[in-house]
Amino acid sequence: MVTEELAGRVAIVTGGANGIGRATAKWLARNGAKVYIGDVHLLPENHDEFFTLGIEEQECDVRVEADVEKLVARAVKAEGRLDILVNNAGIGMAKPITEVTEEDWDACLGVNLKGPFFGCKHAIRQMQQNGGGVIVNTASNAGLLPRQHDPVYSISKMALVGLTKSLGLCHAKDNIRVNAVCPGPVCETGMMNADLEKSSDPKAMKQGFINASPIAKALNRMITPEEVAEAIGYLVTDAARFVTGTTIAIDGGKSLGVSQS
Ligand code: NAD
Questions:
Q1: CA separation for the pair 216, 222 (Å, rounded)
Q2: pTM of this prediction?
Q3: Are 62 and 108 in contact, with CB atoms under 8 Å apart?
Q4: Options 3.65.10.10, 3.40.50.150, 3.30.160.20, 3.40.50.720; which CATH number does 10-184+225-250 get?
Q5: Which DSSP letter does residue 59 get?
Q6: 153 is catalytic
Q7: Chain segment 110-163, per-residue pLDDT in tens
Q8: Pocket lining: 113 vs ligand 1, CB cutoff 6 Å
């Protein structure tokens, strides 16, 4: 879908330099929004395409409140408003709890939960002045059903779903909608590529991810970042004007229950 539906709207996407965030930033820009991305690791390979699409890039560590505040302030100073925030920056933590250090815990909860807290805090202040806005948090299927291999990641994403519902409730009166997408397994992302690179048998690992999602298994492929971006796109458009506090699983049924192997 390509429309001008988001013309005049201003959007921020965190973790917008790669994977799902990059696909989302491009989707929003192609559908008319003015997009600002914040990322701790900006990639030179994005510059030309982002320039063509009018996507502005800013270094931003979502764990640092001043960075997030600066990103929001930059968009508002230049455009006079903020309509859309996609809290997408995230990191994995595939370790049993017995091996998780305090630093690991702080890193995972810092990016996956504290970052969205800072994003919501500063975006909501601005959206209250606009008369409304939309926030989408990128959670995970692990935010719906915990996974054995990454308990702390699962905890961070479940808490993010909690933040989504709580703020959806608190700010419906301000016409601010807060929803989450729960994707996975998503291919061609920094996170997935790093997992596959670390594996002694990447092919088997990839097939394992595919087999864990019934529709991915039926199609014999993972979900693409663009397919997640389309769902985020639905949530930020007016078609979803009464949708708040919800989670959309884009996981091919992975979080529905235990499927037959
Ligand atoms: P990705 O690694 O391609 O993208 C994550 C982006 O976040 C990167 O650009 C990275 O530089 C950025 N980032 C990391 N730490 C940051 C920080 N402190 N401040 C700002 N930016 C930071 O991976 P992705 O899969 O596209 O991840 C996007 C989101 O999707 C994450 O929240 C992730 O948990 C979630 N997710 C991914 C999958 C998957 O299968 N890939 C599944 C479910 C959920």
A1: 5
A2: 0.98
A3: no
A4: 3.40.50.720
A5: E
A6: yes
A7: 999 999 999 999 999 999 999 999 999 999 999 999 999 999 999 999 999 999
A8: no
